[in-house]
Amino acid sequence: MKPWILLVLILTINIALAEDNLVYLLDLHYDNGEINLNEISLETGYNPDRKIQYGDYKLEVISFDYTTIYSFNFRAPRIYADKSDKIKGEIDGAVIDLDEADFTLVIPYFKDGKDIKIYKENNEIFSTDISEFSIRKSPKRNFTWLFVLIVLFVFVIIFIIKRKK
Question: Can you give the pTM of this predicted structure?
């Protein structure tokens, strides 16, 4: 078998077996300092870069052994109001703290995640159970792609063997 065919097959299998980058989408409702859950879902996505953290709220992901496996600080929803006058060439604006808003936090997925908690000034103001998304309770992984690739691989091998005869 030609080396490039083997290389393509190996790369294809690796791509099929690669795990999706999963994240929790935590859709929240903010109302005068109180935070309530609208919806939580597990989606394919990218983990946000949180090298710079600020804000008076702290989110923690708690594992089944009750240790914090991830945390970050965030700020309550705000809006920037731009007031510009193009005729006069003046730009003015303000940051307005909203009393009520819906917002979404993107949180990396953890196989052993049990709870997500939010604190303000070290007081827990929100908690939700995420164990339904845990690997301990999740359904078995779907190997359909692996099966398709193995069948394809077998057909390619049979084709190569018949071609040489």
Answer: 0.64
